[in-house]
What does this fold into?
Amino acid sequence: MALSAPGAGRRALAAALVIVAGASSPACGTASGPTSAVEEAARDSDAGTAEPDDGTHTTGHRTSGEPDSARRGGQAESQRSRFRPTELSLPSGSTAPVGPVSTVDGELVVPENVDRLGWWDGGAYSGDPFGSTVIAGHIDSAEQGVGYFGRLLSIDVGEEITVSGDDAALTYRVSETALIDKDVLVSDSAAFDQGGDHRLVLITCWGRWRPEVSSYESNFVVFADPIGLAQ
It folds into this structure.
């Protein structure tokens, strides 16, 4: 499905965040439940934490992103460096390749390989003055085990994530993490806003396993604000 307008694009993407890999590939998890390594990580991260009733669990708080150049009188827009993400580096130092992905019939089709990530080509580029750069990936799969984005569960507010591409790089600082029920994500498109200050949004599947649909109930989302401009 073509993303013809920011509002329609955000809602289409939110509705799509079942995060599918294609008809021939399994969704996140296994037929009987999440892979054991991811399940163990969840038990560790959830210890002593009760999930709120509104379907959203957040850690930290949103902080205002870097003001745009027009408001702060800084670097002119023409001097900004913007680029398509081709690699993501997490605080652990591990990296993963990133490629452009689109929505097809209302679904965001991320790479089948759980160690590869998909950048939503209907959203912002890295380094843009406004909008969310959305990168999604599988947390695990039946055949491949735990995916690269299984590492998101251990990320803390304040840690740094770097996005690279086209001989440029931009580092972001994590401002918030949230476990969001998929139906809540559909009704609240803030994660996909293309009109606010620029930020990075990382999304994977997580939460309670639903064997009747072979899918996780929620999405785990990481929000991060840029540190300066792309170099």
